[in-house]
Amino acid sequence: MSNLNQAIEKYLKEKDYAGFDLKAVLFDMDGVLYNSMPNHATSWVKIMQLHGFIMTEEEAYMHEGRTGDETVKIICQREGKELNEAERKAFYRKKIDIFNSCPPVVPMKGSREILRKVIDCSLFTMLVTGSGQQTLLDSLNRDFPDVFTRERMVTSFDVKQGKPNPEPYLTALRKGCLKPNEAIVIENAPLGIEAATTAGIFTIAVNTGPLSDSILLDAGANYLLPSVETLANNWNEIYNAIKKVR
Fold first, then answer.
1. Phi and psi of 24, rounded to 5°?
2. Are 1 and 231 in contact (CB under 8 A)?
3. 244 pLDDT exceeds 80?
4. pTM of the entire structure?
5. For 123-136, what is the mean pLDDT?
6. What is the CA radius of gyration of the chain?
7. Is-contact 229 204, C-beta < 8 A?
8. pLDDT (0 to 100) of residue 22
9. What is the enclosing helix (H) or strand (E) of 169?
10. pLDDT tens across 42-53, in order?
C-alpha cells in the first residue's frame, strides 16, 4: 500500500490539508456500481450507425460521464450536423430504447461488498452519475436497498453541466454538507475522474473497462485499482491509511 500512502501525502500537500476528516464516499454508477458500460457502448454505437455517424465502443467509453444530451451534441457537431434540443432529446430517447433492449445489467462484482464496508465504517454514501437512464436509477433500491437516498444522489437531472465539468461533484459536496477532504470518490471513467479531481476530491480509479491505466492516471486519478472487487477486498487498508492522517 506504499503507493497509496504516497498518493495520500501528495494530495494533502497539493491541497494544503493537514489530513482527511472522512465522512462520505461518492460513487459513480455506470462501470462502478453496475456493469452497464458494455450495454451503453453497444447502444451508442448502434444509434450512431442508424444516423450514419461513426463511433467506436472505445470512444463511447471516453464519453462516459457526460450527459446524454452533451454526447449527442458533440458527435453531431463533429459530423457536421446541428440538432436542436428537441431533436437531441429524441435522438437520446432512441439510444435509451436500444439500451433497454440489451441483456439485463447486473451489479458490478464487489459493489455490494464495498458499499457494506463503507457503511460499516460509519460513513455515508452518495451517488454522482451523469446518467439519466431511469431504468438504472430505478434499480438502485432493488439492488442496493437502503444505501442511497434521493437527497444524496446527483444525476443528469440535477446539473446544468455534466462531467468533466466539476459541477456534479461540487453539487454532491453541497448536498452532503462536505468539504473536499471529507470525502473520496470512486470513479472508472476519465471524464468523471477529471470532474472529481477538479472539484478537489481525492479520487480512486477502478479500471473496469477497456481503456488503458495511463488514460485514467492522465485524467488525474490519485490512486488506481484494477477492479471494484479489488477495492472491496482492500478497503480496510485504504480506510486505515486515510484515517491515520486525520
1. -150, 155
2. no
3. no
4. 0.90
5. 84
6. 18
7. no
8. 97
9. helix 167-175
10. 999 999 999 999
CA atoms within 13 A on the CB side of 181: 17
Asked if residue 246 has pLDDT above 60, the reply is: no
Q: Where are the beta strands (DSSP E) in 107-225?
A: 124-128, 153-154, 183-187, 202-206, 223-225
Q: Is 79 helix (H, G, I), strand (E, B) or coil?
A: coil
Q: How far is CA 91 from the centre of its chain?
A: 23
- At 211, list the grid cell: 481503456
Residue 84, phi then psi, degrees to nearest 5: -80, 175
Residues 120, 235: contact at Cβ < 8 Å? no
Q: How far apart are CA 179 and CA 181, in angstroms?
A: 6
| Residues 217, 223: Cα–Cα separation, whole Å | 8
Q: Are 203 and 221 in contact (CB under 8 A)?
A: yes
- Share of residues in the chain with pLDDT > 70 (%): 98
Q: Buried b vs exposed e over 4-24: b needs ≥16 C-beta within 10 Å?
A: beebbeebbeeeebeebebeb
Provide φ and ψ at 166, rounded to 5°.
-75, -5
Would residue 177 be called left, alpha or beta, if left means φ above 0 and alpha means ψ between -120 and 50 degrees? Answer: left
Q: Which grid cell is 178?
A: 462536505
Count CA atoms within 13 Å of residue 150 on its CB side.
Answer: 3
- pLDDT, the chain, mean: 92
Q: For residue 67, what pLDDT is reported?
A: 82
C-alpha to C-alpha distance for 31 and 106, rounded to whole angstroms: 11
- Given the C-alpha cell 460513487, which residue does it identify? 27
pLDDT score of 70 more than 90: no
**Average pLDDT rounded to a whole number, residues 180-190:** 97
Q: State the CB neighbour count (10 A cutoff) for residue 134.
A: 12
